[in-house]
Amino acid sequence: MKESNGMFSIKLQELDQQYQRLQSRLRLCQQNSHTKIQEELEKAVNEYRENEALLQKNAEGCRSQAVAALAEAQLQYFQTSEMILEQKLPDYLHSETGTTLENKVEAAALYAEYAIDFAVRSMRYALIAALKAIDAQMNAEETENPLPD
Predict the structure, then answer these.
(1) For the chain, what percent of residues have pLDDT higher than 70?
(2) C-alpha distances out from residue 10 to 2, 14, 107, 113, 129, Å
(3) Of the ranges 40-54, 55-69, 101-115, the best mean pLDDT one
(4) Using CA atoms, how far apart are residues 65 and 103, in angstroms rounded to an integer?
(5) How far is residue 65's CA from residue 48's CA, in Å, rounded to a whole number?
(6) Which residues of 96-130 are buried (b: 16+ CB within 10 A; e: fewer)?
(7) DSSP state, 95?
(8) Cα(104)–Cα(55) distance, rounded to whole angstroms?
(9) Are 137 and 7 within 8 A, CB to CB?
C-alpha cells in the first residue's frame, strides 16, 4: 500500500486546521468583549452557511449514491440541530427551575457541550470509516499481488 499510505493526508490536515481554529477562536473569545463575541458569532454563522450550501450542492451533484446519502444525512442533522437551538431551546426553558436568564445560559452551554461531544463521536466514526477504506485498499492490493508462499 505504498502510494496510499497518505490517502487521508489532506483530510487530516484539514481536520487539524479546523480543530486548531476552533480551539483558538474559543479561547480568544472567552477573553474578549461582548461586541467581539457577537462579531465572531456573525462570522461563524456566515462560514457555516457557506459550508451548508456547499454540502447541499455536493448532495445534489454527487455521482456516488453513498456519498450523496451521507451528505443528505449531514444536512438533515444540521438543520434539525439548528431548529432545536433557534426554536425549541427557548421553549424547553419554561419547564426548568431557576430564573429564565440562568436557564437560558445553562441550556445554551449544555447544547454547546453536546455539539462538541457530537464532533468527538464524528471523529471516532471517521476513524472507523478511514480504517475500513485502508483495509479495503490493502485487501485489493493483496488480491492483485499475492505474497509468494
Answers:
(1) 90
(2) 16, 6, 36, 28, 16
(3) 40-54
(4) 43
(5) 24
(6) eeeeeeebeeebeeeeeeeeeeeeeeeeeeeeeee
(7) G
(8) 31
(9) yes
For the record, the C-alpha cell of 121 comes out as: 463521536
Tens-place pLDDT, residues 66-94: 888 888 898 899 889 888 888 877 666 55
CA distance 80 to 76: 6
Residue ranges of the alpha helices (H) in 1-145? Answer: 9-29, 34-61, 65-83, 89-92, 100-144
Per the confidence metrics, is the pTM higher than 0.70?
yes
Grid cell of 72 as nine digits: 443528505
Rg (CA), the chain: 21
Q: Measured between alpha carbons, how far is 129 from 123 in angstroms, rounded to an integer?
A: 10
**Grid cell of 120 as nine digits:** 468527538
Task: Supply 111's cell numbers.
Answer: 447544547
Quick one: angle between helices 34-61 and 9-29, nearest 10? Answer: 160
The set of cell numbers assigned to 105 is: 445560559
Give the N- to C-terminal CA distance of the chain in Å, as an integer.
Answer: 19
Query: What pLDDT is recorded for position 66?
Result: 87
